[in-house]
User: Which sequence fits this backbone?
């Protein structure tokens, strides 16, 4: 029988990841855990001096897990930049749409985009869209990995603002 997971927990794990942190699903329990690169190095080197015991145990489990642990979608799979592009393209107000698209160019695009959304009063719509997009990534990942989840279908990723 496939394990049943909560999409909200998958999304939370996805959002906690960074260049130095990876989130995993422990298949037998459905638990989401986040393990730092430092903890993995400590587990490999058997050096537990600088890592919290629970995180070190998680890292050891991931390293020895042989299929018990699934890495959650990473930043490349999530592709938040593409989410911002799709959101910007769907903005009806031409001034706001152009500002959103312009914010996506060059260094600092993520911060500039967020600031632009706030400046034009569409940040709540952006965060709603982003949340639905993250849920869709999580839903697809669950289905690809044979995991049952608590949400049967998305309510769409259309941009209904501005």
Assistant:
């Amino acid at each position: 029988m496939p394990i049943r997971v909560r999409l909200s927990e998958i999304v939370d794990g996805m959002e906690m990841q960074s260049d130095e942190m990876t989130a995993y699903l422990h298949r037998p329990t459905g638990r989401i855990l986040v393990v730092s690169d430092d903890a993995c190095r400590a587990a490999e080197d058997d050096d537990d001096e600088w890592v919290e015991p629970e995180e070190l145990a998680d890292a050891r489990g991931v390293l020895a897990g042989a299929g018990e642990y699934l890495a959650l979608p990473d930043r490349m799979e999530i592709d938040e930049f593409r989410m911002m592009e799709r959101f910007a393209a769907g903005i009806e107000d031409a001034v706001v749409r152009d500002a959103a698209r312009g914010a996506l160019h060059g260094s600092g695009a993520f911060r500039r985009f967020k600031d632009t959304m706030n400046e034009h009063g569409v940040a709540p719509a952006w965060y709603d869209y982003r949340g639905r997009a993250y849920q869709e990534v999580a839903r697809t990942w669950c289905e690809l990995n044979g995991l049952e989840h608590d949400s049967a279908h998305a309510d769409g990723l259309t941009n209904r603002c501005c």
In short: The chain has a mean pLDDT of 89. The first strand starts at residue 4 and ends at 5. DSSP finds eight helices and five strands in the chain. Residues 10 and 138 are 6 Å apart (CA to CA).
